[in-house]
Amino acid sequence: MESVPRISVVMPVHNGEQFLAEAIASILAQTYTDFELLIINDGSTDSSAAIIEQFMAQDKRIHLITNAVAQGFGGEKACNAAYRLARGQYIAKLDADDMAHPERLAKQLAFLDANPGIFLVGSWLTIIDTHGKVVGQRQYPTQPDVIYRQFYYQNCIGHPSIMFRNHLLSDDFYTLRFAALNDYYSHFLHLVQGLRMANLPEYLVQYRVHNSNTTFSAIKRQWAVNMDIKRSFVTDFGYRPPRHHRIAMSMITFIVDHAPARWLDVLLRLRSRYNW
Prior knowledge:
alpha/beta, 2 domains, Spore Coat Polysaccharide Biosynthesis Protein SpsA, Chain A, about 20% strand, 9 helices, single chain, nine-stranded mixed β-sheet
């Protein structure tokens, strides 16, 4: 009988052939080895399936879930289904274009084992471009209370770095209410339900920024959704952000709405640094 792994790693893939092999390899190279890797081929039409099959032939810890048609929502709908199939005590996520530090699983596992009152732990992120060059870093608050206080100002959880306790949620992990950034909204829902979150002050994931996601129009669209989500924190849940956080968001909104396209580099650097 196959043993139940301590960790289930979930990786959604949609036409991810360019970086998929690096992402998978970074999980298989973990110093902690008692895991299963659930890869969701979410309607890919490129060579993603062939790449996954090559790795599956080499490592029996890999399990493939295939969706004939992409489920949308940035892979979060597909992840909801995969999370329900995950057997591990803990679930970790990694996207198909990012890479995990070799000790990521070991360090997050040790933290959750030692802190039973924490539902989810993330980490700091190194930002890389399409060529793998480091272009920035994201540091997040580490303590649960500080994370909650700053959640209007920024999404304090680096989504590619999360590891959380399995079987604690009665509903799907992601509530798919918005056109994008539902991880931000869902993390907040977990917080208001009393589930505590923390971050390890270490760079355990390399998060890749794509050219397709850094156009000026994409920033404007995502910022509009971002502000809709922040407003929902206040109107739907009575969240009271500090006044200086509200002022900062208003100033950034004005810049995003009125800045010329040549300011794109400045906006990208600020977004990469602070994860607004």
